[in-house]
Amino acid sequence: NSSESHNCAKSILTSDRLQIVVTLSEFFNETWEAANCANCLKNNSEGLSNSTEEFLDLFNKSLTCFEHNLQGQATDLSPNNYTEVCKNCNETYTKLNDLYNHLQRMNRQGGESAHSAHLCIDVEDAMNITRKLWSRTFNCSLPCSDTVPVIAVSSFILFLPIVFYLSSFLHSKQKKRILILPKRIQSNANLVNIQEKYS
Protein backbone atom coordinates (compact mmCIF):
# COMPACT_ATOMS: atom_id res chain seq x y z
CA ASN A 1 0.00 0.00 0.00
CA SER A 2 1.86 3.05 -1.27
CA SER A 3 -0.14 5.50 0.83
CA GLU A 4 1.10 3.88 4.02
CA SER A 5 4.57 2.87 2.76
CA HIS A 6 6.38 4.08 5.88
CA ASN A 7 4.09 2.19 8.23
CA CYS A 8 4.25 -0.86 5.96
CA ALA A 9 8.08 -0.87 5.96
CA LYS A 10 8.14 -0.33 9.72
CA SER A 11 5.77 -3.23 10.37
CA ILE A 12 7.73 -5.60 8.11
CA LEU A 13 11.29 -4.63 9.08
CA THR A 14 10.82 -4.24 12.83
CA SER A 15 8.07 -6.71 13.47
CA ASP A 16 10.30 -9.33 15.14
CA ARG A 17 12.16 -8.80 18.40
CA LEU A 18 15.63 -9.34 16.84
CA GLN A 19 14.92 -7.09 13.86
CA ILE A 20 16.85 -9.54 11.72
CA VAL A 21 16.25 -7.74 8.40
CA VAL A 22 17.55 -4.40 9.75
CA THR A 23 20.53 -6.09 11.43
CA LEU A 24 21.50 -7.97 8.26
CA SER A 25 21.07 -4.86 6.13
CA GLU A 26 23.36 -2.84 8.44
CA PHE A 27 25.91 -5.67 8.50
CA PHE A 28 26.09 -5.89 4.71
CA ASN A 29 26.29 -2.12 4.33
CA GLU A 30 29.13 -1.88 6.88
CA THR A 31 30.99 -4.77 5.21
CA TRP A 32 30.58 -3.11 1.80
CA GLU A 33 32.00 0.16 3.15
CA ALA A 34 34.84 -1.45 5.13
CA ALA A 35 35.92 -3.50 2.09
CA ASN A 36 35.82 -0.41 -0.18
CA CYS A 37 33.85 -2.46 -2.71
CA ALA A 38 32.65 0.66 -4.55
CA ASN A 39 36.28 1.36 -5.53
CA CYS A 40 36.22 -1.64 -7.89
CA LEU A 41 33.11 -0.46 -9.70
CA LYS A 42 32.32 2.19 -12.27
CA ASN A 43 30.72 5.44 -11.10
CA ASN A 44 27.20 4.20 -11.76
CA SER A 45 27.99 0.74 -10.30
CA GLU A 46 26.98 -1.03 -13.51
CA GLY A 47 29.99 -3.33 -13.33
CA LEU A 48 33.68 -3.61 -12.66
CA SER A 49 35.81 -0.67 -13.70
CA ASN A 50 38.17 -1.13 -16.64
CA SER A 51 41.26 -0.90 -14.42
CA THR A 52 39.88 -3.56 -12.06
CA GLU A 53 39.17 -5.90 -14.97
CA GLU A 54 42.67 -5.31 -16.32
CA PHE A 55 44.18 -6.02 -12.89
CA LEU A 56 42.18 -9.23 -12.37
CA ASP A 57 43.15 -10.40 -15.88
CA LEU A 58 46.86 -9.86 -15.11
CA PHE A 59 46.40 -11.52 -11.71
CA ASN A 60 44.96 -14.64 -13.37
CA LYS A 61 47.79 -14.64 -15.93
CA SER A 62 50.35 -14.47 -13.10
CA LEU A 63 48.80 -17.39 -11.23
CA THR A 64 48.59 -19.38 -14.47
CA CYS A 65 52.26 -18.65 -15.15
CA PHE A 66 53.24 -19.76 -11.63
CA GLU A 67 51.26 -22.98 -11.98
CA HIS A 68 52.54 -23.73 -15.50
CA ASN A 69 56.20 -23.29 -14.51
CA LEU A 70 55.76 -25.33 -11.34
CA GLN A 71 54.45 -28.24 -13.41
CA GLY A 72 57.54 -27.98 -15.59
CA GLN A 73 59.73 -28.35 -12.49
CA ALA A 74 57.83 -31.25 -10.96
CA THR A 75 60.96 -33.43 -10.92
CA ASP A 76 62.98 -31.07 -8.73
CA LEU A 77 60.89 -28.93 -6.40
CA SER A 78 63.26 -28.28 -3.53
CA PRO A 79 62.26 -25.25 -1.44
CA ASN A 80 64.92 -22.98 -2.97
CA ASN A 81 64.77 -24.15 -6.59
CA TYR A 82 62.15 -22.01 -8.31
CA THR A 83 64.43 -20.41 -10.89
CA GLU A 84 62.10 -21.22 -13.80
CA VAL A 85 59.18 -19.52 -12.08
CA CYS A 86 61.26 -16.42 -11.31
CA LYS A 87 62.70 -16.24 -14.82
CA ASN A 88 59.57 -16.99 -16.87
CA CYS A 89 57.02 -15.10 -14.78
CA ASN A 90 59.11 -12.01 -14.09
CA GLU A 91 57.52 -9.95 -16.87
CA THR A 92 53.94 -10.81 -15.90
CA TYR A 93 54.56 -10.17 -12.22
CA THR A 94 56.30 -6.85 -12.96
CA LYS A 95 53.33 -5.69 -15.06
CA LEU A 96 50.92 -6.70 -12.28
CA ASN A 97 52.99 -4.93 -9.62
CA ASP A 98 53.29 -1.76 -11.74
CA LEU A 99 49.56 -1.75 -12.46
CA TYR A 100 48.78 -2.15 -8.75
CA ASN A 101 51.06 0.78 -7.85
CA HIS A 102 49.42 2.85 -10.61
CA LEU A 103 45.95 1.99 -9.31
CA GLN A 104 46.96 3.03 -5.81
CA ARG A 105 48.18 6.41 -7.07
CA MET A 106 45.03 6.87 -9.18
CA ASN A 107 42.78 5.89 -6.29
CA ARG A 108 44.32 8.47 -3.96
CA GLN A 109 43.35 11.13 -6.51
CA GLY A 110 39.85 9.67 -7.00
CA GLY A 111 39.97 7.42 -10.05
CA GLU A 112 37.27 5.74 -12.10
CA SER A 113 35.09 4.94 -9.10
CA ALA A 114 35.26 8.52 -7.72
CA HIS A 115 35.99 7.06 -4.28
CA SER A 116 39.24 7.81 -2.53
CA ALA A 117 41.27 6.02 0.16
CA HIS A 118 42.04 2.31 -0.36
CA LEU A 119 41.54 0.00 -3.30
CA CYS A 120 38.77 -2.54 -2.96
CA ILE A 121 39.53 -5.60 -0.86
CA ASP A 122 39.51 -7.99 -3.83
CA VAL A 123 42.36 -6.14 -5.55
CA GLU A 124 44.37 -5.74 -2.34
CA ASP A 125 43.97 -9.40 -1.38
CA ALA A 126 44.89 -10.56 -4.87
CA MET A 127 48.08 -8.47 -4.78
CA ASN A 128 48.96 -9.69 -1.29
CA ILE A 129 48.56 -13.32 -2.39
CA THR A 130 50.76 -12.74 -5.46
CA ARG A 131 53.47 -10.93 -3.49
CA LYS A 132 53.59 -13.67 -0.87
CA LEU A 133 53.91 -16.34 -3.54
CA TRP A 134 56.57 -14.36 -5.41
CA SER A 135 58.76 -13.38 -2.47
CA ARG A 136 58.20 -16.00 0.25
CA THR A 137 57.23 -19.17 -1.58
CA PHE A 138 59.31 -18.82 -4.74
CA ASN A 139 62.06 -16.65 -3.23
CA CYS A 140 62.05 -14.37 -6.26
CA SER A 141 62.93 -10.69 -6.24
CA LEU A 142 62.60 -7.79 -8.62
CA PRO A 143 65.83 -5.99 -9.56
CA CYS A 144 65.99 -2.62 -7.88
CA SER A 145 65.56 0.17 -10.42
CA ASP A 146 67.46 2.63 -8.20
CA THR A 147 70.73 0.66 -8.24
CA VAL A 148 72.71 3.03 -10.46
CA PRO A 149 71.82 6.24 -8.54
CA VAL A 150 72.51 4.53 -5.21
CA ILE A 151 75.94 3.33 -6.36
CA ALA A 152 76.76 6.77 -7.79
CA VAL A 153 75.80 8.61 -4.59
CA SER A 154 77.63 6.06 -2.41
CA SER A 155 80.80 6.38 -4.49
CA PHE A 156 80.64 10.16 -4.34
CA ILE A 157 80.29 10.11 -0.54
CA LEU A 158 83.15 7.61 -0.17
CA PHE A 159 85.51 9.77 -2.25
CA LEU A 160 84.68 13.02 -0.43
CA PRO A 161 87.31 12.56 2.35
CA ILE A 162 90.00 11.76 -0.23
CA VAL A 163 89.13 14.85 -2.27
CA PHE A 164 89.03 16.99 0.88
CA TYR A 165 92.46 15.93 2.17
CA LEU A 166 94.05 16.08 -1.27
CA SER A 167 92.73 19.60 -1.94
CA SER A 168 93.77 20.82 1.52
CA PHE A 169 97.26 19.42 0.96
CA LEU A 170 97.64 21.04 -2.46
CA HIS A 171 96.18 24.45 -1.61
CA SER A 172 97.72 25.04 1.80
CA LYS A 173 101.04 26.90 2.11
CA GLN A 174 103.85 24.61 2.97
CA LYS A 175 105.75 26.28 5.81
CA LYS A 176 109.45 26.03 5.43
CA ARG A 177 111.47 25.20 8.46
CA ILE A 178 113.37 28.24 9.66
CA LEU A 179 116.35 27.53 11.82
CA ILE A 180 116.71 30.00 14.65
CA LEU A 181 120.32 30.39 15.68
CA PRO A 182 120.85 30.81 19.40
CA LYS A 183 122.46 34.01 20.64
CA ARG A 184 125.79 32.98 22.09
CA ILE A 185 129.04 34.69 22.87
CA GLN A 186 131.01 34.54 19.70
CA SER A 187 134.44 33.61 20.94
CA ASN A 188 136.44 32.87 24.07
CA ALA A 189 138.86 35.67 23.22
CA ASN A 190 136.20 38.29 23.81
CA LEU A 191 135.36 36.72 27.14
CA VAL A 192 139.04 36.96 28.23
CA ASN A 193 139.12 40.65 27.21
CA ILE A 194 136.02 41.38 29.29
CA GLN A 195 137.53 39.66 32.34
CA GLU A 196 140.78 41.60 31.94
CA LYS A 197 138.94 44.94 31.91
CA TYR A 198 137.20 44.27 35.20
CA SER A 199 140.31 42.91 36.89
From TrEMBL:
Q: Which ranges does the record mark as transmembrane?
A: 148-170
Q: What protein does this entry describe? A: OSTM1 protein
Q: Which GO terms describe its cellular component?
A: cytosol
Taxonomically, the superkingdom here is Eukaryota
Entry keywords, A to Z: Membrane, Transmembrane, Transmembrane helix
InterPro entries with a match to the protein in the record: Osteopetrosis-assoc_TM_1
